[in-house]
Design a protein that fits this description.
By secondary structure, this protein is α/β, with parallel strands linked by helices. It has a single domain, classed as TIM Barrel (Alpha-Beta Barrel), CATH 3.20.20. Helix content is about 50%, strand content about 15%. The protein has helices at about 5-10, 30-35, 50-65, 80-85, 100-110, 125-130, 135-145, 155, 160-165, 175-180, 195-210, 220-230, 240-255, and strands at about 15-20, 40-45, 70, 90-95, 145-150, 170-175, 210-215, 235. An eight-stranded parallel barrel has the order 1-2-3-4-5-6-7-8, surrounded by seven helices. The longest helix is centred in the last third of the chain and has 19 residues, at about 240-255.
Length: about 260
């Protein structure tokens, strides 16, 4: 199986899948991180600086490293989800799914008939799948994974209904936005007790529905905590955060190592 068609099986493995999270505008960045030990690479078109054209260029570079490409689309850009699946994305994350109608519209653009309304034209996806057209059409609804983001009070209140929508394969928790929503806009605390309780509830509901659940983690330490909770997919930090952390670590080593030398910083 290819990285594209095998993604659901990876999520079923029982081991949390760790995905890099990329928003820098050059497709070389996700291509580079795909060569590291991540299980997948996510491109963030919602808050990242990367555009559609660069994302389409990045998808086959990620696949060439044997990893599935996941893309978070901008809010309500469900038609973009179809185009990215056509380009070979293995999974789409849609933010701000706050109503059942939002979930249904998202699912419609990610699934072929009779389940959805996705039209035919998988130019890149067909090549990356290794399948002939008939086999791709028969299998794509099963291996094109649709994550609906739960990050508001409204979404949390109807999480069972969102999970029940045909074509929604998973939910994805946005802890930062959820913390803002649950505090009534008073604080940004993605590790608050309210968010922890909400995540536990969401995991239980996803398990009851037999569907996957993902989450964003700002650090490796936080990712380990969330892995222990039982999330299937965990996004780890971001490309810009990893770049800064690497630079800071290298500079710290140099400055500590030269602290007693002539001409030290």
């Amino acid at each position: 199986m290819t990285p594209l068609s095998s993604f659901p099986e990876r999520l079923k493995s029982g081991t949390p899948q760790l995905t890099a999270w990329c928003g820098l505008p050059d497709p070389a960045v996700p291509a580079l991180l795909a060569r590291e030990g991540f299980d997948a690479v996510t491109i963030d078109m919602q808050h990242g600086a990367i555009d559609f054209a660069a994302t389409v260029r990045a998808i086959p570079l990620i696949a060439a490293a044997g990893k599935p490409a996941i893309v978070r689309v901008p809010v309500a850009e469900f038609a973009t989800a179809s185009r990215l699946l056509d380009a070979g994305a293995a999974s789409i994350i849609a933010p701000m799914i706050n109503t059942v109608e939002d979930a249904r519209r998202f699912a419609a653009f990610t699934k072929f008939p009779p389940l959805g309304e996705r039209s035919w034209g998988p130019h890149g996806g067909l090549a990356l799948s290794g399948l002939d057209p008939k086999s791709y059409f028969a299998g794509a609804n099963g291996f094109s994974v649709a994550f609906a983001m739960v990050e508001t009070r409204e979404a949390l209140a109807i999480v069972d209904d969102i999970l029940a929508v045909d074509g929604i394969d998973a939910i994805f928790i946005g802890p930062s936005d959820l913390s803002i929503a649950l505090s009534g806009g008073a604080s940004l605390d993605p590790a608050s007790r309210e968010v922890e309780a909400a995540m536990d509830h969401a995991i239980a509901r996803a398990r009851a529905a037999g569907k996957f659940i993902g989450v964003y983690a700002a650090s490796g330490e936080r990712a380990a905590q969330l892995a222990a909770k039982g999330f299937d997919l965990i996004a780890l930090g971001s490309d810009s955060a990893l770049l800064r952390a690497g630079a800071q670590a290298a500079l710290r080593q140099v400055r500590q190592g030269t602290s007693g030398a002539t001409g030290a910083y």
